[in-house]
Amino acid sequence: MTTPIETAVQNAEEALRSAMLRSDVDALDHLLAPTLFFTNHLGLIVSKEEDLDAHASGALKIDEIVPSEMRITSLCDTVATVSVRVSLAGSYGGEPASGDFRFTRVWALSESGHWQVVTAHATLTQ
């Protein structure tokens, strides 16, 4: 049975997917914690500001994100982890970029009562 926290985080995951597809910087700003750090599939650490800038400038354009194999674990009332496999297609710096990735995200309930990604990691899958 799905808990209310798992449902809320699943909804936040869908909002994140939608915002990334639209490069909706305002929505991403709401969904990403100020202290976010994201370790990408190349091992580079990306800050919230860098991620938002990539979307705003058009350097990062995501055309398709197809999630599968999602697992959500509620750690407490205010923190949950997500592991999700995605098929992703788009471009970075004008060059095509696509592949299958596994993302691990930690979501935390903000002081204002909405879920935000506080850290994330991506791995290229085979």
List the uncertain runs. Answer: none
Q: What is the highest CATH level, the class?
A: Alpha Beta
Report the biggest beta sheet as strand number plus sense, adding barrel if it closes.
6 strands, mixed
Helix/strand-derived class?
alpha+beta
Strand order of the largest sheet: 2-1-6-5-4-3
Percent range for β-strand residues: over 45%
Individual helix count: 3
Organism: Desulfoluna spongiiphila
Protein name: DUF4440 domain-containing protein
Domain DUF4440: 10-117
Pfam families: DUF4440 (PF14534)
SSE topology sketch:
Layout: H1 4-22, H2 25-31, E1 32-39, E2 45-47, H3 48-57, E3 60-74, E4 79-92, E5 95-109, E6 115-124
Parallel strand pairs: 1-6
Antiparallel strand pairs: 1-2, 3-4, 4-5, 5-6
Question: Would you give an account of this structure?
Answer:
The protein has 126 residues and is of the alpha+beta class. The protein has a single domain, classed as Nuclear Transport Factor 2, Chain: A, CATH 3.10.450. It has three helices and six strands. It has a six-stranded mixed β-sheet. Strand 5 and strand 6 form a beta hairpin. Helix 1 packs antiparallel against helix 2. The longest helix has 19 residues. The relative contact order is 0.20.
Concise account of the structure shown:
Helices cover 29% and strands 52% of the residues. The chain is α+β, with helices and mostly antiparallel strands.
Short descriptors:
single chain, 126 residues, Nuclear Transport Factor 2, Chain: A
